[in-house]
Amino acid sequence: QVQVLESGGGLVRPGGSLRLICVVSGSSFSIYSLAWYRQAPGKQRELVAVSTRGGGTNYADSVKGRFTISRDNAKNTMYLQMNSLKPEDTAVYYCDRYPYVGDWGQGTQVTVSS
Prior knowledge:
mainly beta
């Protein structure tokens, strides 16, 4: 049984930073390409960043230069460092495999507001 726990979300002012954490247990973490996704109210789910199992990374244009995805396969943990946050980054953030499967965690809320 795979268990996924996302954490690190919260309320932050524009220009601030947050670090999201995704811990996965019960699965062979290192074999997957992984990603962070987000969904804002009334909007479709959006791919934010990808960490391939080969060590590559890709980012949505909207977050390039501000967000950094990383992973520690030994700890079954993935991270998303988010800097220079903007109100339009407000959403529920999810970690999952890439391509999206949709049966992992419940997400963590990120709210960027003054």
